[in-house]
Structure formats: C-alpha cells, structure tokens
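User: Carbohydrate ABC transporter permease, Cohnella suwonensis:
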Amino acid sequence: MKTTALERAGQGLIVALLALMCVSILYPFLYMLAISLNSGADAARGGIYLWPRSFTWINYEIVLGNEVIRHAYLVTIARTVVGTFGGLAVTLLAAYGLSYKQLPFRNGILTYILITMLFNGGLVPFYIQLFKLGLTNNFWVYIIPSLFSAWNMFVMQKFIQGIPEAMIESAELDGAGPLRILLQIIVPLSKPMLAALGLFTAVFHWNDWFSGAFYVSDQNLIPVQTFLQQLLSAQDLSAVLGSNNNQEALARASSVNITLMSIKMATVMISALPILTIYPFLQKYFTKGVMIGSVKG
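Assistant: Predicted structure for Carbohydrate ABC transporter permease:
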C-alpha cells in the first residue's frame, strides 16, 4: 500500500519523538554508569557525560566488599523470590476460586475485595496492626502484607473466566477435581498472565524501600533499596562505611580517593542491573499477558 508524503512525514515525526524519548531514558542510566566506573576524585572535577575518563573498578569493589550491602542484597533477593512466588500462588488460588459462579457468597466477597481497593485504614492503623501481629522488625513484614493484591486478583480472575468453559466441563466429566483442573488446565494456559503479574510483583519487591525504612529498625533486615535511600541521604562515607565492621573499607576508600557520589552511583547500578537482566527473558510473556488481560478485562 502506497503511503502519501504526509503519512511518511507523520511516521518520521513519530520515530523522532520515540528516539528522543529513548535517549532521555537511557542517558541518565549511561551517566550513572560512567560515574560509577570513574575514579571518584576525577569525577568530582566534572565533565563526565557518557563514558569514564579515569576508568576503575574500585567503586564496585568497595560496594560489593561492604558486608552491610551484601547482606542487604541477600534480604532483597530473598524477599523478591519468596514474595513473588507466594503472591502469585495466593493470587491464583483466590482468582480461581472466585471464578466459579456457583461459589456461595461470591458477589459479596468480590464486593468486599473491591472496597479494599478504594479505601484503607491509613498508615498509622496499618503500623499498629503490624506491631500487634509481631511483624515489625521481622523479615515477614516484607512478605505477608503484600501476599494478596486485589488488582492482580481481579485481572487474574478475568483471565480465568476467559478460558472456554467447555475445557473445564470436559475435565470434570472425566473425573478431574478442582486441584487437577487448576494444575493441568488453568496454570498451563495462564503462563503469559502469571509471567506479567510475576514481573510486576518482583519489581515491587525489588524496588520497595518504604517497608524497610518504616517497619524495620534492625540494619541486618533492611533491603538494598532502603540502604540505597539511606546512602543517598548520607553526607559522608563514614555514615555508610563507618561502622566497626567496615573501618577497613572506609580506610581503603579514603586511600584511593573514593567519593560518596561514586559509591552512590555504583550502588544504584548494582541495584538496577538484576531487574534489567531478567526483563528480556520475560518480555514475550509480559507483552502477551498484558494484551490478553486488556482484551479480556
């Protein structure tokens, strides 16, 4: 089909705008990467924009050699893995059960869940509830409160309801029970949606700094994003590396002219890279799952 000059001009404008948007997104990332790979004292002089002027790995050696940061990464990885699989399991089971129209009190339960999406008790009552349940200063404060997401449940329920009823009825006639139908029919057909929701959930757990900042005071339980938030508000390296267990790291950082900014950039890069490396492997499921959800929703 032949396109007109006006259509080609419009397509060119769209490509230019998308390219400009990509540059605006990529440039801050490349800038932080350049600073993290540059000597801190040299970076403080300015003039670094896309690539390091004085290349070094010392910033990453200091960050990865810090016991507090390594432990924070372990906490983040653990909460992301446990929270993602736990959240998907709870969401799938709730959506599967509520997809049955014959379920007693089904409409009332759905209405109650919908109300929780629109109203909440607020931060203070929520903190009191966590305290009464013994979840403050506890690893499970990252997992249990976020196991169920009303939005994810509704999206998953709509997807399950879009599966042809004839398949489920045929399985029931063959003697399959609810659990077998779930594992052999619902789960295989729901892989794109589960991948999309799993990515959303994993990104939430990986990026969440709020829970560690307000519900946890034990430094051994903070996730890496909370540590990063503390690092970004720090005024000097001693606030980050100056504990009794990190005097050696602090002395080394001082001897090689490491600056707080270079340490910040290295920590930001390390905290962002895992999600950036996982996303390409889930992209095809993510795109398919979102499109299916939007059509069936």
